Each structure stands twice: as structure tokens, then as C-alpha cells.
Amino acid sequence: MPPKAPISPSDAAAAKIIKLLESLHEKLDARPVCECNQLRQEMLEIKKMMGKKPVEQPPPPPMDTYAAVKLALNDASMYADKAKRAVWVGRPEESTPELTTASDQKAIEQLCAELNDGLLSQALTEGKILHHRHPQVKGDRRKRMLKIAFTDEKTRDNFLSLIRSNRPCTVTRTPGNFVRRDLCPYELQLVLISVDWPMGFETKI
Hints:
By secondary structure, the chain is an alpha+beta fold. 54% of the residues lie in helices and 9% in strands. The chain contains 8 helices and 4 strands; from the N terminus they run αααβααββααβα. Strands 2-3-1-4 form a 4-stranded antiparallel β-sheet. Helix 1 (9-30) packs antiparallel against helix 2. The longest helix is centred in the N-terminal third of the chain and has 22 residues, at 9-30.
């Protein structure tokens, strides 16, 4: 027996549309007469789609070797920085940037004291734990995230591990407050999709 010819994408799309039409016919027979017009309209739209050719998107312009290497290096640098940062979400801000910075510093000191870890306390004393609000310009956002930067990934991981195991009240006493690692762009996309937030919101976080 000769081998079967492979199914082309157009044949697969046609089979999918035919199956959908059959499903709509079944719905049409099962629904009351008052709902038939809407189903007929859906069937007409599908028949129109069958007569249209798919719009082919032009391929992206080729990227030269220098631009590709530069983009890869920039991405690697960004991911390396994110790997050494934690994010405190939900922490309120004060009335001025100066008061917010001072309040954030005090909160981080209290958090490290509550975690009671010698390496974290030493890093804090030596000025190796820095922080800033993101984005830097507040704009119309009511709350900005507090990003906490460490000098190495190991210290950051230890910080997050202690928070997960100890659940310090410095963070948990305020509803909506939590600390996580600094996510990469594709991870933010997955989070936004999972909670059904509007696209474009990731540029703000």
C-alpha cells in the first residue's frame, strides 16, 4: 500500500472549519427558533472566512551580526542584574521621595534584623544592600515596587529563602505585601496572562 500523502496546512484548516460548521448545525437543531438567527449569522461568517486567503506577514528584516551580539550582551547583562535583585511588592510610599527613601531603608533594616542572619546583617552594615523604587518616576501609579539589590546572587537567594521560611511580620503584617525575585520580561508576560491583566501593563512593573 502506497504511503499516505501528508496533510497540508490548508487541508487541516478546511477540515477544522468543516468540523466547526457541523457543530454549529447541531447547535442550530438543538436551540429554540428564537436563537437560530444568531447561529445562522455565525455560519455565514465562517463561510466567508473559507473564501479568504490567510494574510502572510512579511519576515522580520535580517539582523546583522554586530546588532545580534550587542542585543544578546544587553540581555545577558539585564538578566545578571535581575538575578541579584529582590522585589518588595505592596509597600506604601510616603508623601515625598526623600521620606520614601528613608522609610524604605528603615524597613529593610527591620526586615534583616527580623531574619537574624549574620551574612545579611554584615552586607547591610557594609552598604552592600541597596534599594530604589521602580519606576523611578512615580507618574499616575499609586504604588511602586521597592527593588532591593544585592552584590551577588547567593546573598539574594539566601534573603528570599529566609523570607519564605520565616514569614517575617515586617512584610506579612500588611495585606498585599510580599517579596519575590526580580522577574524577567517573559516571566512578567506569563504572570499577566495568568491573571488576565491588560497587555502593556508589564511596562509599568
